[in-house]
Amino acid sequence: MRILVLPCVLLASGAVFAAESSVPLLSVTPGAGGQVIGVPGASLPWLLLFPFLPALLLAFSAFARIAVVLFLLRQGLGSHTAPPNLVLSGLAVLLTIFVMSPALKTIDAVAYQPFLSGALNFNDAAAKAAEPLKVFMLRQTRAEDLALFTADDRTVDPKRAETVPLAALAPAFLTSELKTAFQIGFMVVLPFLIIDLVVAAVLTALGMIMLPPQLVSLPLKLLLFVSVDGWHLLVGSLIGSF
Questions:
Q1: pLDDT at 184
Q2: Lowest mean pLDDT among 14-28, 41-55, 157-171
Q3: Backbone angles phi, psi at 35, to 5 degrees
Q4: Angstrom distance (rounded) from CA 189 to CA 71
Q5: Which residue blocks in the chain are alpha helix, DSSP H?
Q6: More confident of the two residues 75 and 51
């Protein structure tokens, strides 16, 4: 599970430990009734940021594209509870780790292990850890999306990851990921939409307007998805899209 901690180290380094002298998140001072635990004012913004860390960490990875496509697939099938959210989220996390394993292994080799051994301090390790992640994100980011956030910065060279600030690359990357996810999702949902239209037309022609079309189309869509080995095709297509 150590490989899952690496993005946490990177994100924390970019915000909380921007300076060499960090502020403690909690302070303990003696008081009349005993010890008093307080929060220094300088560290309060980072404590307020902690609830949003999971969403921010996932935004730096391939999770957004994979999760959106999987949930669009379930929506297209017309099954709102199967597979459940936990199963789809778990599959998305596992595929994310597989897709990003080269970048995470590089981060582990050049930043995390030297930091654990004491060869690098935290800020230097964070700087080295940022480079492989930025290369991955930049490779998946469209030029027009990156230009939207770096239009006023003349020092940015899209071909050189070290010149692109993470604050601009992250929203550009997520914007590109959502666009790609919806493009893939459209191709996934389209066959199921055709089945829904055909079933609705047949039921209307037969005068069975009181029968919900979803009751008939759901088994047909499941049969189609299973017959073409849909999970294998979808997972392969998602992995190949990176």
A1: 92
A2: 14-28
A3: -80, 140
A4: 11
A5: 2-15, 44-49, 53-59, 63-77, 85-107, 113-117, 122-140, 143-150, 166-205, 213-227, 230-240
A6: 75
Beta-bridge partners for 165: none
pLDDT higher than threshold 90 for residue 6: no
Spans of all domains in the chain: 2-13+60-185
Output the six-digit token pair for 215.
């009751």
CA distances (Å), origin 230, targets 127, 189, 221: 41, 12, 11
Structure tokens at 65: 């594209």
CB 156 within 8 A of CB 168: yes
Distance (Å, whole) CA 134 – CA 130:
6
Position 19 pLDDT exceeds 80:
no
Quote the crossing angle between the two packed helices 166-205 and 143-150, to the nearest 10°: 130
pTM: 0.76
Alpha-carbon distance of 90 to 70, in angstroms, equals: 11
Length of the chain: 242
Residue type, 4: L
Task: Measure the CA angle with vertex 141, ends 7 and 166; round to 5°.
Answer: 45
Query: Which residues make beta-bridge pairs with 27?
Result: 38
pLDDT band at 41 (very low <50, low <70, confident <90, very high): low
12 pLDDT exceeds 70? no
CA angle 166, 7, 84 (to 5 degrees): 115
**pLDDT at site 34:** 53
